[in-house]
Amino acid sequence: MDVLGIKLENCYGIQQLDASLAFEGSPKRKGSPEIPFGSAFSIYAPNGFMKTSLARTFLDFQEGRESQDLVFPARPTSRSISSDPATSITPESVFVIKPYVERYAGAGTSTLLVNPKLRSEYEEAVRNIESTQEDLLKALKEVSNWPGKASPASEIKEVFQFKSPYDFFAELAGSLDGDTRFSDLSYTEIFNDKTISAFKAGTLHEQLQEYISKYQELVDKSPLLSKKFNHTGAADVSKSLHSNGFFDASHTLNISNGSERLEINSAKDFEALVIAEKQRILGDKELSAKFEAVDKQLQKNAELKKFREYLTEHPEIMTELGDFNGFRKKLWYSYFNVVQSALSLFAGAYASAKDVIAETAKQALEENTKWTAVVTQFNERFYVPFKLVVQNQQDVILKGESPKIVFEFEDGQGTCGVEEDKLLQVLSQGEKRALYILNVLFEIQARLESKQQTLLIIDDIADSFDYKNKYAIIEYFNEISKVPFFRLIFLTHNFDFHRTISSRLQISRGRRLFAKKKQGALSFVQEKYQKNPFTTWKSGLAQSSAFLVASIPFVRNLAEYCHGTTSPHYLKLTSLLHIKADSLTLTIGDLEASFKATLLDQAALTLPNPAGSALQLIYDEAEALAVGADDDVELESKVILSIGIRLKAEEFMIAKINDSAFVDAISSNQTFELYSRFTSAFPAASEQIMVLSQVNLMTPENIHLNSFMYEPILDMSALHLYDLYGKVKALA
Predict the structure, then answer these.
(1) Which of 278, 313, 348 is the last residue of a domain?
(2) SS3 labels along 379-428
(3) I need a labelling partner for 587 at 20 to 30 A (CA). Which of 44, 376, 564, 568 fits?
(4) Is 206 part of any domain?
(5) Are 546 and 635 in contact (CB under 8 A)?
(6) How high is the pLDDT of residue 462?
(7) Does a structural domain hold residue 396?
(8) In terms of domains, do 504 and 538 share one?
C-alpha cells in the first residue's frame, strides 16, 4: 500500500475530494528535496471542516456500506478508495479508530487469548467425543420421539441437573440396569410446558395422590398382583415369556390366584388373566370416580386434552405421576437402557481423550497469552484507577468462549472488583477513553499477529486525555508506525495534537497536511509552518504585507515586555489594533521604527512605501482576503481578518457614540467599553448589537497573540471570519 487514492463526491458533506497520499519515498528532483518513505500522514482540519466526514466514509468502506450525503440525500454520491501497487485495498485492510466508543469490542480481541498449539490439541481430543455424543443424542431423540430438529440435550440437563454432559454420560454408561419398561412412551406427550405446570398445581397433584392411593389399595387386595408385581410388570413377564418361546417348549406356569393355584399353558391364557385382573381394578367405582376428578382437570386446554387421550391409552402411567419429577428420570433411564450401545461408544471415546483434555486445560490456566501481554501493556502505559483481569481464560483458549473481563478499581485506600456498567458510571471522560483505547490495542495486536496489512484511520484519538495518557497513546502509535505492513493516517482538528504527533513520529514535511476548501472542493496542502510561524514571518516582513500586518499583535506583546505599556512603540502598535486618536496618521515608517526597536535582529529592516498609511495597509490586506474568500487555514490570514474586523467595528461604534471625551478616556478593554456604551445608548439596534457581540466573542484571542497560544486561531474556520467581516463592513 504505497499510494492511497481517495476520490469522493457528496460523502457526508464532502462535496469533492481528489487526493493521493504517497507513503513511498519520492526521488530528489532539481529544486525539490527528497521525501523519504513514511508510514504515517497527519492531516489537520479546522472544526466542522471534513475530519469526521472522511473518517465516516472510510468506516463505511470498512463495514461494507454505501456512503451518502445525509443533509442532501438527492445528491449523487461517489466513493473510490484505491491503493497502489497491485494489492488492492479491502474492507478487511481498513481499521477506523473513532474518537470514542463506550462499548467497543474488536473482532480480534478473543483471538489473542488463543494459544494455537493448545487449541489444536484440545480440538483433536474432543473431536471424537463430540462425534459420539452427537450419535448418542440422535439415538435418544429417536427413542424418546423428541419433536423438531433440536436434540433433547437441554431437557436432559434440566432433568438431571449436571454440570458436564461428558461426565454425566460417561458415568451413566456403567450404571444402567437394563430396565426398558417405559421406553415405548413418547416423552413430550407426557411432559411439556402445559402438563408440567398442571402437575405442579395443587389441585391436580392432590387428586392424583388420591387416585394412586386407591389404586395401591386395590392392588394390595389383588390375589394376583402386588406393589412390586403390578399389571405393568405382569405384562412385561408375559411379553418376555412369549418372545423367548417359554410355552412353545411345553413349559407351564403355576400362578397363585388367591387361595388357588392355576396352571397356565400358554401366553394367551396368562395375558387374559392379567387383563382380567387389570380391568377388575381399573373398573372399581371408587377408583373410577377419582379418575374422573383427575380427568376434569385435564379438560382445561388443548394440550391437556391431548395428554388425557394419551393417559386413556396408557392408564398404567397414572400411578407414576404422583412423583412426576421422578417419572421424568424413569423415562430417560428407560431410553438410556435402549441406547446403551451408543452410550458405551461415547464413554470409550471420552475415557481415551480425558487425560489430554485435563492436561491442555491445566496448560491453558498457566499460559501467558498475547492477550495478557496487551493487558499488561495497558496497565503499565496508561494512568487509570483500574486494572483488568480476565476470569475465564481457560474456556476462551480451549472452547472459544467470549472473554469475561473484570475490573479491579483502586482508590488509594483499597481495591474492589467492579462490573463494567458500574465502572463506566464512576470514570471520567478521559478514563473512559483510556478503556476504549484498550480495546483498540486488542484489535491492533490481533492484526499484528496475523500480519494483516492495515490502513489505520485515526480520528482525534487523544481528545479529552490528560497529558500523561495523551503522550502514552502517541508513543504507542510511534511504535506501531514502524510495523512494515501498517499505514497510519491521523485526522485531527486539534493543532497541538497535529504538531505533537508529527514531531514524535517524525512525519516528513510532505506528509504533514492541512485541509483546504475552495468553492466546496476539498484538498490537502502541505503545512506551511512546520516549526515556529513567527520565525517565518520575521524573515519576510519586507517582502510580504500579510506577514507584516499579522506580526503587529505579536510584536506589540514583545514591546509590552521589553519597553513597558507607556513606551511609544507599545502605544503606536496599540493604535493599529484599536482606533485611537493617532491611528489614521500612523505610517508604515512608524511601523518599521517600532519593529526595529523591538526585534533586535531586524535592525536593517526597510519596509516599502514608508509614507503610506499603516491603517490602510491593514484594511487592504483584510479586503484582499475577503475578496478571495478561500477557507484558508494559514495563521496570518485569520489574524489579519480579526484585526480588520475589530478596527472596523470600533470605527462604527465611535462614530455612533460621537463622544470623543469618552473614547479618549478609555485606558483598557476598549472594544468591550465601546460595546457597553453602544448597547446602553442604542438598545433598539438589535441587529447591530448582535454583530458587535460576535466581534467581542471571536476576535480578542486572535489579536492578543503569542508564540505559545496560537492554536485556537487555527482551529477556527476562516469562513466564520469572512462572514463576520462582511457584516461589520455593512454596519450603518
Answers:
(1) 313
(2) HHHCCCCEEEEECCHHHHHHHCCCCCEEEEEECCCCEEEECHHHHHHHCC
(3) 564
(4) yes
(5) no
(6) 73
(7) no
(8) no
